[in-house]
Amino acid sequence: MTEPYLLLWLEGPLQAWGHDSRFGRRDSLDFPTKSGVLGLLCCALGAGGEQRELLAELADLDMQLETHVPTGRDGNPQPRQPLLRDFHMVGSGYDDQDPWQNLLIPKKSDGGKPNGAGTKMTYRYYLQDMAFAVALQVPAARLEMFVAALREPVWDLYLGRKSCVPTEFVYQGHYATAQAALAAGAALAGDKRRAFAFRVLQGEHEGDEVLTLNDVPLQFGEHKQYRDRRVTLRHGTT
Questions:
Q1: How far apart are CA 122 and CA 49, in angstroms?
Q2: How far is 208 from 167, CA to CA, in rounded Å?
Q3: Are 202 and 62 contacting, i.e. CB atoms less than 8 angstroms apart?
Q4: Chain mean position to CA 29
């Protein structure tokens, strides 16, 4: 018996799927990462901490997705909007002698003051007006638990960053195969007047591009750990 697939619909004005962010530059991949999707699932469950056992069950299971963009009045796909860049200054203007204001100044992991000034500048990037149909394979024994959590999440669900709120119900059913799940996602996209843009398959397949992503979470919590995953980007419809 093969493991079933959840269909997750990730749609919102802004999404951010960090993959290779460094220091003050917080990039976003063009599509959801596996770590981001499993993090969303943990939010639905209210599962904090390392979650090593749960993540071990999900690490080797399949995840495929299709990207859908808005269409114009003529029904043709609209050009994708560029990444939105948001400039942040964190810790600016606070008095480190005031015990309450001091709490808002960035600190090192040991609680000490960072090198240089306390104010930190960051650039954060966001996808705009995108929708993703994600077919996530899950253990059959945990299917009912996951469905119940997605229908009534313990914690807020968000699309990569907490400022990215979904504008549609995330859970859109469960299916026996990834193909059936993505077909249902394509039907929903049609109802929303969205057009297919590209597909991301797990593993190496014949496609336009093969990428290595360090996005399979082995441990969440304070000391996160990940391993690599190969994915194939396919721009055709087959």
A1: 26
A2: 31
A3: yes
A4: 9
| CA–CA dist 125, 146 (Å, integer) | 30
CB atoms within 10 A of CB 158: 21
Return the structure tokens found at 117.
């000034």
DSSP letters for 169-218:
-SEEEEESSHHHHHHHHHHHHHHTTEEEEEEEEES--SSSEEEEEEEEEE
Beta bridge partners of 230: 212
Pairing state of beta strands 225-234 and 84-90? unpaired
From first to last of its 238 residues, the chain has per-residue pLDDT tens of: 689 999 999 999 999 998 766 666 778 899 999 999 999 999 999 999 999 999 999 999 999 999 999 998 888 888 888 888 888 776 666 777 888 877 777 777 777 766 555 567 788 899 999 999 999 999 999 999 999 999 999 999 999 999 999 999 999 999 999 999 999 999 999 999 999 999 999 999 887 889 999 999 999 988 889 999 999 999 866 5
CB 219 within 8 A of CB 192: no
Task: Give CA–CA dist 120/110, Å, rounded.
Answer: 17
